[in-house]
Amino acid sequence: MLVVIRGAGDIASGIALRLYRAGIRLVLTDLPNPTAVRRTVCFSEAIRLGEVQVEDVAGRLAHNSQEALELTKQGIVPVLADPEGACIAALKPDAVVDAILAKKNLGTHMDMAPAVIAVGPGFTAGVDCHAAVETMRGHTLGRVLYTGSPIPNTGVPGNIGGYTVERVLRAPASGVFKPCLEIGAMVKAGDVAALVGNTPIRCTIDGCLRGLLQDGIEVFKGMKCGDIDPRCKPDHCLCASDKALAVGGGVLEALLHLTHALEGLEWTKSN
Hints:
Blueprint: E1 2-6, H1 10-21, E2 25-30, H2 45-49, E3 51-54, E4 57-62, H3 65-73, E5 77-81, H4 87-91, E6 95-98, E7 115-119, E8 131-133, E9 144-145, E10 168-170, E11 175-179, E12 186-187, E13 192-196, E14 199-202, E15 207-212, E16 218-219, E17 224-229, H5 242-259
Helix pairs in contact: 1-5
């Protein structure tokens, strides 16, 4: 089975880990200049660096669809700089997963593949996708919808350690982003995490700097630039989040349901 995942940020990468470990071949796509914050667990870094390892899974930049297919045969997750998803027509995948998380539909439709699964708000199952997966933290996280839509975007990040909006760092102005710290650094409220031009971005709470944009990227005022984890566990920076894996489990469920991949299999009980 071949699946194209649109997006290669931290949620998309958590989905990719779930599917890859279930034996599914994958091709991921993202922007030519990715804007993922949790870069240590994002396959999108392959576009910038050429190759990346997310947990125990290797990813590599592919320059075209044929190269991507060859990488899947080697057990490597290929990543294409293809935000429009032009590769989908050439690859003819069994399924497409929209994990861009733009909070709106950027062009995904049900004719892209036999199974089209969308992640997060902005989609309606049965209208522009065959199934949608909830991304809001809480009781319904990871739940699959075959009709209706995920919870609309509230603009408030999920609660981690008692913090919501406080744990997200945003650009105070438009300009060129320059990090002053590394992902995994332990920080205190008031520490300077980065600069936009000459304007500092200060840490808003104590914790571990779980995510930070790469040096030199253009940002706009209010853009998400970093993420502080108040649980203060640096090892969390090197593994997919609970949210990403929960959403990935929902995508795997929807994929098996829509493709009937397990139908006809005979299960035997070993003694």
